[in-house]
Amino acid sequence: MGKIKVGIEAKILSDASAGIGRYVTELCRNLSYDPELSLILYSPSAFNSEIVGKLDKVRFAAGSVKNPVGKQLWLEIVLPFLLKRDEIDIFWAPAHKMPCFVSSKIPKILTVHDLCWKIVPETMKKTTRLLDSYKMPGALRKADIITAPSKSTAEDIAKTFGISKNDINIISPASNLQNVETDDTIISKYGLARKKYILFVGTLEPRKNLERLLKAYSLLDDSLKNDYKLVIAGAYGWGGMKTADIVSQLNLTEYVIITGQLGDDMLASIYANSYFLALPSLYEGFGIPIVEAMSLGVPVLTSEVSSMPEVAGNSALLVDPLDEDSIYKGILELIENKVLYEKLAAGAVESASVFSWQKSADKLSHLIKKMINK
């Protein structure tokens, strides 16, 4: 028997790699080393060249569609035709949605990363929310196998759609930053080499709760803000998150540094040199920055809701994301309580080691082979 042909809807890899894009990239990279599998990635538009460079053992099939409506039509109409033409054995939809016309003869795996549209709809762009709420129920019905990144997300899916938790497979993200050669130019650029600083990493959008984090940070005494700058790293998302304007309104300009999105080498450097990660999100299906920080020995301040306590394990201080005072007290606690800080830092690498891209790829590979060999 020849290799198992796995077709993967990879529209997300036409954009910059963040969140789900990183998940798809790293799982495909690890899956591609399995001698029994052959991966073909499909997208309505050209793939991000940086991502293509990381995936040298997979095939790419890209269209040249540029407008959003055209991309959706490509996924619904062209992709099912390509899957049939390429005689795909298994189809993996790694980003919530499943094309309606994929042949019923092709076994299907669906990954649902979160239920933002259901749990925190106010934090989503309206079109994305409507598309997810419309497409997800049908995708779940079509899927032969469902995966989620965390037990918390699996529970959300089970509760919302009446699916048994036992029928949802947990395939978690991980961090690869501990193996990345760091580029310290970002540290030099902002004069952070000899400073302690608090770090936020994530797309700048409402769900990340950045405005409350900034307001909580502003409550610190000026002397503490001077000693512990707040560094914000991440691409701008949607929702009018004009972070620089909020920083200015709160008189934080001299204490807050906004870097924009960083490559892995600079990201690894800025994590490794940080005092702790602050990620008080309103909701996360997993929260990759938590694992990235811990993998480099950095403790975490994060929210007591959704998947975040599960992912952080024993290396985080948990706060109420809706309460600025709770976030403020958490920041102060990690600055002033050195015993607690050292305890969280000491267990960080071990907490992160629970998660591995290779282990997750092996789980996914096992599911694929099990479906083929039924």
Quick tags:
374 residues, alpha/beta, Rossmann fold, 7-stranded parallel beta sheet, 6-stranded parallel beta sheet, 17 helices, 13 strands, 16% strand, elongated, transferase, Glyco_trans_1, glycosyltransferase activity, Glycosyltransferase family 4 protein
Q: Architecture of the largest domain in CATH?
A: 3-Layer(aba) Sandwich
Strand percentage, roughly? 15-25%
Largest sheet: 7 strands, parallel
Briefly, what CATH class of the largest domain?
Alpha Beta
Task: Assign a percent range to the helix content.
Answer: 40-55%
What would the average pLDDT be, to the nearest integer? 93
Structural domain count: 2
CATH superfamily label of the largest domain: Glycogen Phosphorylase B
Q: Give the CA-CA distance, first to last residue.
A: 15 Å
The helix-and-strand class reads: alpha/beta
Please describe what this structure looks like.
This protein is of the alpha/beta class and about 375 residues long. Helix 1 (about 20-30) packs across helix 17 (about 355-370) and helix 8 crosses helix 14. Strand 11 (about 275-280), helix 12 (about 290-295) and strand 12 form a beta-alpha-beta unit. The model has no long low-confidence stretch (mean pLDDT about 95). It has helices at about 20-30, 50-55, 70-85, 115-120, 125-140, 150-160, 185-190, 210-220, 220-225, 245-250, 265-270, 290-295, 310, 325-335, 340-345, 350, 355-370, and strands spanning about 5-10, 35-45, 60, 90-95, 110, 145-150, 170, 195-200, 230-235, 255-260, 275-280, 300-305, 315-320. Strands 3-2-1-4-5-6-7 form a seven-stranded parallel beta sheet, with helices on both faces. A six-stranded parallel beta sheet has the order 10-9-8-11-12-13, sandwiched between helices. It is built from 17 helices and 13 strands. About 45% of the residues lie in helices and about 15% in strands. It has two domains: about 5-175 and about 355-370, Rossmann fold (3-Layer(aba) Sandwich); about 175-350, 3-Layer(aba) Sandwich (Rossmann fold), CATH 3.40.50.
